[in-house]
Specification:
alpha/beta; globular; 5-stranded mixed β-sheet
Length: 271
């Protein structure tokens, strides 16, 4: 189409405003529509039988052109419903929060997400971190939220991972990946499941993040040895580095796994 537009321009010589409008139309016909490149969300059905085990198989390969996007869970939902667990040390042990104004979970989510990205970049992954920078965003439609930025990235074929720590017993479940469901189950989630364990995809009726193409990784319950190691200044950095190393190891293994390309359409695999 572009050569035709150039020929028309040469034939017309001096272009009038009307002719210029025609040229704009001809050029726009050749320009790709960014929205047309987006994947279409397809939520899987709720399983007929109840169960808490892994009931999905990751086969979708993320776009190689898109960086892995890592976010900290609850980064935009402080001082409101869904702000994350305060952890056993604060809630039951009387310890002071790690940082005033945010839950201990968010504090560790942020440090862990940054550690994962730093380790991933060190190992050559195309990976980056996103932080909305605003700790309370009540409007779900705000484009700065984790959900909005994560959905935008996932809909373009990228992989999005949100870091979490689970609540202490008896409220929490434990470590594992809650897979994104909007665009099919990813090979990266499959690899994370082998390293950390897995939740069923319909956990709590399919959570808001997975519905938007965002995978959630629960590192572990915020209690016991894990929480004590994070709170101990002498053990904190080695603990974060160990966690980041495990996450990056799984991501690298997932990227090396052949699977279904996103352009062929998302699939839902059930066991």
């Amino acid at each position: 189409m572009r050569p035709i537009a150039l020929l028309l321009a040469g034939a017309l010589g001096a272009i009038s405003p009307v002719q210029a409008g025609l040229m704009d139309i001809l050029e726009s016909m050749n320009a790709p529509d960014p929205e047309s490149q987006r994947l279409v969300p397809r939520l899987p059905p709720m399983p007929a039988a109840a169960g808490r085990g892994k009931n999905w198989v990751g086969t979708v390969v993320p776009s190689k052109q898109m960086p892995i996007l890592v976010m900290a869970g609850h980064a935009d939902s402080q001082r409101m419903h869904g702000s994350g667990t305060p952890g056993r040390a604060v809630d039951l042990g009387g310890a002071a929060p790690m940082q005033a104004g945010i839950t201990d979970e968010l504090y560790w989510n942020l440090l862990t997400a940054k550690a994962v990205v730093a380790e991933g970049q060190r190992q050559g992954l195309n990976i980056r971190f996103y932080d909305p920078g605003v700790r309370t965003i009540r409007n779900e439609q705000d484009p700065r939220t984790n959900w909005a930025v994560g959905y935008d990235h996932a809909s373009r074929g990228g992989y999005v991972l949100e870091i979490h720590y689970d609540a202490y017993a008896p409220h929490g479940v434990g470590p594992g990946v809650i897979p994104a469901v909007a665009f099919g189950f990813s090979v990266l989630d499959e690899a994370l499941a082998k390293e950390f364990g897995a939740y069923p995809y319909h956990y709590r009726g399919i959570l808001g993040a997975p519905r938007r193409g965002i995978s959630m990784l629960e590192i572990g319950q915020l209690e016991g040895v894990l929480e004590a190691s994070l709170r101990d200044p002498s053990r904190r950095q080695p603990t974060l580095e160990q966690i980041a190393s495990r996450v990056v190891k799984a991501l690298r293994e997932g990227l090396a796994t052949p699977g279904l390309q996103p352009s062929e359409g998302p699939t839902v695999g059930l066991r």
